[in-house]
Amino acid sequence: MAAEVTGIAVPAESNTLRAEEERLRGMLEERLGIRTRVASLPGTRALLVSPISAGSPKGLIVDRSVSAAERISLYVHLAAHIALKHDLPLITIVESRGDVTSGDENKHRDADRLARAMWWGTSARADGRELWPGRRSRVLRPLLASRPGRIGVRVLLLVLRRLYYAARARRFLEDTVVARSLRDALCVTAVVCAAPELAAGQAGPDHSTA
Questions:
Q1: 164 to each of 150, 160, 169, how far by Cα in Å?
Q2: Which end of the chain is more exposed for a tag (fewer CB within 10 A), N or C?
Q3: Whole-model pTM?
Q4: 169 pLDDT above the threshold of 70
C-alpha cells in the first residue's frame, strides 16, 4: 500500500528514523539470521531468500528507493512471515509494489494481521512477542487508526518538532521523557503512515497459531 502524505514539508529522513531502522536491522540479523543489503529492484520493494540448510543466514534484498519508515514496516512484516513458518528452504518471499499473486495472497494477509499485532505488542503468540519488540501505545494506536487521524497526528508532531528546534529547547530537553516521547511518536507515526495496514483492524489481539 502506498505511503500517505501530508501537506507539510517533511525532511527526506530524520536521524531518529534512520537510527531506529539501523537498530531493527541489526535485531533482525541477531534474532532471525537475516542479512540485509540494498539493490535496485524495479517493481519490487524487497526479496527475502531462505537458504537450503537450516541455520544458514537468510538474505534480504531491499530496493534502494524504499524509505527508512517503509523498511521498518517491511522488517516487522517479514518477521511475521517467519513466525508463520513461510520461510521454507529455497523459497523467496516477494514484497511487490503492486498486487500479490493469488497463490501468495493468503500468506501476505496472514502476515499483515500478525505484523499488526506484533507492531503494537498485542500478539498472543509467544514467538511473535519474542521476534519483535512491540510498541504498546494506548494513545497513538487509536489516533492512527484512520487516515485523517494519521495525517493530523503527523502534522501536529512535525509542527512540535519544528518548534522544539526553533526554540532551541533541545539543550534543555534532549535527554528527557518529553524528547524521547516526541521522537518515538514521530517514528511510530511515520512508519504507520508508510504502511497503513499496521493501523487497520483494531479489534483486538491476534490469536493465530502456527
A1: 21, 6, 5
A2: C
A3: 0.81
A4: no
